[in-house]
Amino acid sequence: MRSLAALLAALACSSCAAPSTCLRVVVSPSFNANETMAVGAAVSAWSVARPMCVAPDRPDITIEPASIERINWIDTNGTIPDGANAVGSAWHGHVWIILGRIDTPEVYWVTMHELGHALGLGHYDGPRESWMTARIGDSVRVGGVTPRDVEALGR
After folding, report:
1. What is the DSSP string of 54-112?
2. Domain residues of the chain, as ranges?
């Protein structure tokens, strides 16, 4: 497994093949090292389908921890289904992960799902072949982005 420094260096915008086309992602310093590794791994996985890089500023997408109260306040449209059970949310280029509701290993799975929303994907109600199933617990739980997800991004 790569170190945190190696992962972030590999995701730096200077290492992006075409920096002007990479989505700039800012990861909150409020995450601990293990959470940052999980978030970075999710950014790296989605980068296969949509080039992204971790940037210090000027984000297209921000990823940060939040409380359920903050999510419910932000989500004025009431689009979180069953907000009492929410573990993350994405809205207008922001991804929030509710750390108090999940263990550190779950940060990767939740970030994968919510980054899909930040990239414009909605929920998918079919078989478990996508990160975008309506309930994160029903998501495919494989290492990287699935062909179904890549196809949906291309639409």
Report:
1. E-SSS-SEEEEE--HHHHHHH-TT--STTGGG--EEEETTEEEE-GGGS-HHHHHHHHH
2. 4-121
